[in-house]
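Figure 2 data, in text form.
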Amino acid sequence: MQATAYTYDAQTRSGSVLLDDGTPLPFDAAAFDAGGLRLLRPGQRVRIDVEGEAGSATETDGRRIVLVTLQTF
């Protein structure tokens, strides 16, 4: 799945992405570390692997990002 980096905190290595429908979805340090990245800037296109299902159209509970990597073409 593709998304756009929205926030990133270098100290905690966590942040959030915006899915293509505009839904924000947070990621933790484990997901960031799994991708082998060193830095992430807001606006970068990323590829994410997600586990779980969305609760509803407005809720993101149940979904968890397990991998964040840079989108390559």
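Caption note: The first strand starts at residue 2 and ends at 9.
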